[in-house]
Amino acid sequence: MGVESLLVFIIVGAIAGWLAGLIVKGYGFGLIGNIVVGIVGAFIAGWLFPAVGVSLGTGVIAAIIHAVIGAVILLLLIRLVKSA
């Protein structure tokens, strides 16, 4: 993985984590936390979407949407575990 790919990976994770934090109110984790939530969310969506048969296409925008959906799922799971 080159430096450019790593930078895009981090930026997509940060944007996805930030958007997911806005969607799921009360779950902002700061810049580093949002990056981690976005990256983990992208992995969750990358595993879940092909299993269900959903494809959003390719490109940066599709990657951000993909990661946001996964990050929202992750934040909802975190909320569910914290409330239990």
Helix/strand order: HHH
Low-confidence stretches: none
What structural class do helix, strand and pairing data support? mainly alpha
User: Which shape, going by the Cα principal axes?
Assistant: globular
Number of self-contained structural domains: 1
Strand content: under 5%
Termini separation: 39 Å
Question: Helical region count?
Answer: 3
Instruction: Give a quick account of the main beta sheet: strands, pairing sense, barrel closure.
Output: none
Report Rg.
13 Å
Q: Give the tally of β-strands.
A: 0
Mean pLDDT over all positions: 83
Protein topology:
Elements: H1 3-23, H2 30-52, H3 60-83
Helix pairs in contact: 1-2, 1-3, 2-3
Describe the structure.
The protein has helices at 3-23, 30-52, 60-83. It has three helices and no strands. The protein has 84 residues and is mostly helical. Helix 1 (3-23) packs across helix 2 (30-52) and helix 2 packs across helix 3. The chain is globular. It has one domain (13-83). 81% of the residues lie in helices and 0% in strands.
